[in-house]
Amino acid sequence: MDADPVAGGMSQAAQRITVAIVDDHPVVVEGVRSWLATEPRLAVVATGDDPDLLRHGAARTAQVILLDLRLHGRMALDQVAELSAAGRRVVVYSEHTEQETILAALDAGAVAFLAKHEGREHCVRTVLAAADDRPYVPPSLAGAFVGDRRSDRPALSDQEREALLLWFQSMSKASVARRMRISEHTVKQYLDRARIKYARAGRPAATKAALLARAIEDGLVRPEEIGTYRSYASTDRPTPQRPS
């Protein structure tokens, strides 16, 4: 994996969100790197075509990894799972946008899924959201989720759905607790209950991104309800209503 000269000196890159790009097509690497270079908060510190090289050099500490799901003719789901288990933030970046593929990547631990045709704006927004542990739903991802209605959709209570929605929007369980006027422990219980219900339905959602995928897929949360991060700790926001 090569150090990226566009990223500049280490002192400059240290103040920005560091990104590693793993793709076996040099033209894609150069294109994505040029997109990310338009955002001053991002610094591409390494590029390459082998996930194993993420263990070395500047890529070893990159805050976000943009990983092509198909490398050298093989799907890289095992690498997604391995990197995610090691605590790395992996954004899967692929031309394979079938719903089964998207959910498999999220179930493997990816924090986000981005289609290669999405373009610069969605690429930059997805990486920024991933670095902040925020969900971001590009159009193709939203379409894949909303396009399916499964009969094994779990029944969530109004409180569980509201806790999920506010957690997806605000990141902090503490701010969700303040908004709902309950304890942080109760918020965690609501989120854990939702995960348990999905696991019992045979559709596990171990990560925040996977849980968001399930909720959107089942119509419990609408993609437009996620949006850009804002604080919802204030008490003047109307309680979210269950979609009809």
UniProtKB/TrEMBL annotation:
Keyword flag Repressor: no
Transmembrane segments: none
Keyword Cell cycle: no
Chain positions found as 4-aspartylphosphate: D68
Response regulatory domain location: 18-131
Pfam families cross-referenced by the UniProt entry: Response_reg (PF00072), Sigma70_r4_2 (PF08281)
Keywords, ordered alphabetically: DNA-binding, Phosphoprotein, Sigma factor, Transcription, Transcription regulation
Coiled-coil region: none
Family according to the record: Belongs to the sigma-70 factor family. ECF subfamily.
Protein name from the UniProt record: Response regulator
